[in-house]
Automatic annotation (TrEMBL):
InterPro entries: Cupin_2 (IPR013096), RmlC-like_jellyroll (IPR014710), RmlC_Cupin_sf (IPR011051). This is Cupin. It comes from Arcobacter cloacae. CDD domains: cupin_reut_a1446. SUPFAM superfamilies: RmlC-like cupins (SSF51182). Pfam families: Cupin_2 (PF07883).
Amino acid sequence: MEKYNIFDEIPVDKSEERFFEIFKNETIKIEKIVSNGQKSPQNFWYEQEKNEFVLVLEGFAIVEFEDFEVELKKGDCLNIKAYQKHRVKFTSLDETTIWFAVFY
């Protein structure tokens, strides 16, 4: 068994978003995502094969769907169904946004 602290290794990198795989098997993947103002490219949409549960541990973000958007602050979570088109419209510019994501 390996202990992991979600708040270890929080890089402040304005040039790229960072992804840290915490656990993965055939049915589930858990990762930490660290954003510093990054957002999805213009006209880019995720349409993933798996459901995605996201929890914002720090910071602020806006997740955009085809006909609505959801603002997420510290402690907010969202369950995104498989193949539901979505994109990251915004992440905090002045503080790091830390996501906890479960793909299942």
